[in-house]
Amino acid sequence: MATDPVHPEPTRKSGYRYQFTEKHHGGGTSEDARWAEDLSHADEFSVFDAADFHDVTDEGGRLYGVFRTQDGVLRDLGTWQQQIAGFPRQSEGSAWHGYPIWAVNHETPANRSGQQMRPAKAVFQRMQDAGLITKREKKRLLAGKHT
């Protein structure tokens, strides 16, 4: 069994390592969140790196990120049109991983939809303060709507 690859470089700020898990790239169940097939590993890592760089965290230490296209549009990160990714806090020295979490479309399984998947309001404010999202985008995302 092959191991999940780890990005060759750590994050700029904290030196975190990032692992690309097969579970979130189509190797898990139909209820597992999956990254969009056309999102490169480099782009996935950039979402994580920016989340760490801008300290977009919640009270539990999870990181959250978004990805803008070259045209400045927030792109869908996941197969259910999620525009925010979450990165669960890892123990010291362990590689992090992440997956798309919010906002989602009507095809999302029950275990991946609803308010339990929405980051805390403070996370959206941190994203806005860091310039990752606009005030308008924050309002739409908080409401579970696409930007």
Structural overview:
This protein has 147 residues and is an alpha+beta fold. Helices cover 20% and strands 7% of the residues. The protein is globular, with a radius of gyration of 14 Å. The model has no long low-confidence stretch (mean pLDDT 90).
What are the key terms here?
3-stranded antiparallel beta sheet; 3 helices; alpha+beta; 147 residues
Rg (C-alpha, Å): 14 Å
Q: What's the total number of strands? A: 3
Order of helices and strands: HEEEHH
Strands of the widest sheet, in order across it, are 1-2-3
**Oligomeric form:** single chain
Number of domains: 1
Rounded to the nearest angstrom, the distance between the terminal CA atoms is 39 Å
Number of continuous helical runs: 3
Mean pLDDT figure: 90
Largest sheet: 3 strands, antiparallel
The helix content, as a percent range, equals 10-25%
- Going by helix content, strand content and strand pairing, the class is alpha+beta
What fraction strand?
5-15%
Provide the low-confidence segments as ranges.
none
Q: Judging from the principal axes of the Cα atoms, what is the shape?
A: globular
